[in-house]
Predict the structure of hydroxymethylglutaryl-CoA lyase.
Amino acid sequence: NSNARVKLVEVGPRDGLQNEKKAIPLATKLELIERLAKTGLTTIEAGSFVSPKWVPQMDNSSEILQHLLQHPPASPRPLTFSFLAPNLKGLNNAFTVLAQHPDSFATESTTTTSSTSSPSSSPASPPKPALEVAVFAAATETFSRKNLNCDIATSLARFREVIQAAKETHSLRVRAYISVVLGCPFEGFDVDGHRVAEIATALLEMGADEIALGDTTGMGTAPRTKELLNCLSAAGVRNEDIAMHFHDTYGQALVNTAVALEHGIRTFDCSVGGLGGCPYSPGATGNVATEDMVYFMETLGMDTGVDLDAVVDVGDWITREIGKGNASAVGPAVLGA
Ligand code: HMG
Ligand code: MG
């Protein structure tokens, strides 16, 4: 039943780690990605080509991309690795790596769209991973300036160039985030759903393949999630083009996930161990934990293709490795049971 299939996007290696003050060794980041790849997750956000002055923790994204191309992780399902790029400077830094490994990645046109249950390939020669670029807009002017140092209109003009270059040069899939869609740390709850729909429509018209709606602050509630999705539907944005990116700061992420599922959304972001926070969203905690998301989906009879026990082990390992508490509820419960 394809309606019971959900796609989970693992953002732990990027959103989960970007805010860590202590530099996390490259080897730890690579091991995290490799371990996640074994759990059945198909899409992993692996890094971010942003200014190292703004987000120092993501400074070794070139090395991460290079390693993933040279040594594609073994995985039971075909993999897509996603990298943030806010401007052409960031995209070109990614392209520099791609130019050195031109035949090491699958482009959108060479991958099959059904990513759910393809046969596992020989562990000796993992298939080429697909790559995706992610741009990130904001729903409020203040957040746009704090996060991107420019207003929304300027950011959209930059994303148009990034999307075009990503498509024309390497036929890459492009995801486009819109942050603070359900609340802004600077402008409060006063985020206009119609404005979100307008930005989403603009990004889709530029060629973005998916809109990821970010509840950056975790301020979203069930009724406001419903209201936002109704706004997008009314504007003609299709459910299959939307992913939900819930942070769990107020503990509402799974409730909001249920609302979005009911609305017909089938792509959800999550972060192993509930790692994370946004450097430009004071006090925001991590995304909803992958462990909690997988458990929740399974109890609803949804098919994630992800092995819960395996992802619980990864969450236990990485939170110990970087010395953080495990923010997943399900992970420690499963381990203690
Ligand atoms: P700016 O200072 O306005 O950039 O920053 P600029 O174009 O004026 O350039 C200034 C310097 O930065 C130059 O270097 C550029 O080369 C360099 P200099 O000549 O001074 O030596 N530069 C870059 N270096 C590396 N990579 C680049 C790059 N661009 C310029 N891509 C900029 C503008 C967008 C770069 C900056 O604001 C930035 O990096 N922002 C990123 C902030 C960020 O990463 N936030 C977290 C990710 S978003 C998020 O977490 C939300 C999300 O999870 C969804 C949700 O939860 O809602 C996605
Ligand atoms: Mg986020």
